[in-house]
TrEMBL record:
Family: Belongs to the auxin efflux carrier (TC 2.A.69) family.
UniProt-annotated location(s): Cell membrane
Residue spans crossing the bilayer: 12-31, 43-61, 73-97, 104-127, 133-155, 167-187, 199-217, 229-252, 258-278, 285-307
Residue ranges that the Swiss-Prot or TrEMBL entry lists as coiled coil: none
Protein name: Transporter
InterPro entries: Mem_transp_PIN-like, Na+/solute_symporter_sf
Pfam assignment, any one: Mem_trans
Leader sequence residues: none
Length: 308
């Protein structure tokens, strides 16, 4: 009752109906990890190599593919990533960050959680109608996540051909290529193939959120208020404004515009933390920013949904 005096009813309802369910599933993964340490690697492989590709393939095959939509989303992805990269790199130089801290800032501001947070969020917000757009957004933003993020994490030790080779190993891209090839041939898989793939794909979204909660439970958070404040301001403050402006400049409207803005305004991605742990750098800064942006996004995403 007290909250209703300060928060519009529409905002509180959006939080309860769209944002809160996402965080409840994340929290269930957090509790599960704290109470019984599960084999995170097995769940990761299951999600990456089976459930997520099934989701992408079935979503693309069930809908008519719009080539102009893919072109718009690709151009948006390139401009969005380039501008955020330039901004974050400029801020790091201005503030005198060392190479490792600069890499951590880039990983946590340029790379957003477009998959295991963004996909469920857009689904809860806009339903089945948004699935094709959100899946294409997810796939396209996995290009910088699977290439540029690896290059950033490795620093001067990086190799672009190696990064591209690693991207080519991600089964999600195989599913996209296969779906586009079948559509080009005009061949539609029979129902006995699509139905199990559709069921597998439905399991991908909740598992992604549970895994996010498990990863957050494993995060070792250290207080670096200045760094976390800067990274959070860029990821949750500047990024939505940038997405809003780019969709206007590119003439992207309607549901596509809403999905793009919402899905690219999500917290910092979890995958760069694995890169930081693998290649060195500052995993403490990356992990702390992931935790900070995930918690604060409960407020920022609710406000953004209201504005959309």
């Amino acid at each position: 009752m007290l909250l209703s005096c300060f928060i519009p009813r529409e905002v509180s309802m959006l939080f309860v109906q769209v944002v809160l369910p996402v965080f409840l599933i994340v929290f269930s993964g957090f509790v599960l990890e704290k109470s019984s340490r599960l084999d995170f690697r097995t769940l990761t492989i299951t999600s990456l190599y089976l459930l997520a590709p099934a989701l992408v393939f079935s979503a693309l095959m069930k809908r008519d593919f719009d080539l102009s939509l893919a072109g718009d989303l690709f151009l948006f992805m390139v401009l969005y990533t380039a501008i955020l990269y330039a901004l974050s790199r400029g801020l790091a130089a201005l503030l005198g960050f060392d190479d490792e801290s600069r890499g951590a800032l880039l990983l946590t501001t340029v790379m957003m959680n477009v998959g295991n947070f963004g996909l469920p969020l857009t689904y809860f917000a806009f339903g089945e109608a948004a699935l094709e757009i959100s899946v294409l957004t997810f796939v396209l933003f996995n290009i910088p996540l699977g290439t540029l993020a690896i290059v950033i994490a490795q620093g001067s030790r990086s190799s672009l051909p190696t990064a591209l080779g690693n991207m080519a190993k991600i089964p999600i891209f195989h599913a996209v290529i296969l779906a586009f090839f079948f559509k080009w041939l005009g061949w539609h898989p029979p129902e006995f193939i699509l139905r199990p793939l559709d069921l597998l794909g439905q399991a991908a979204i909740p598992l992604m959120l549970v895994m996010l909660g498990m990863q957050l439970a494993r995060t070792q958070w250290q207080s670096r208020v200045g760094f976390f404040s800067l990274a959070t301001a860029v990821r949750l403050g500047v990024a939505p404004i940038l997405a809003w402006g780019l969709t206007a400049v590119l003439g992207i409207e309607g549901l596509t515009r809403a999905v793009l803005i919402l899905q690219t305004s999500t917290p910092s991605a979890v995958l760069p933390l694995l890169y930081a742990l693998r290649f060195g750098g500052r995993p403490d800064l990356v992990a702390g920013t992931i935790l900070t942006t995930t918690l604060i996004s409960a407020v920022t995403l609710t406000i953004l949904l209201y504005l959309l």
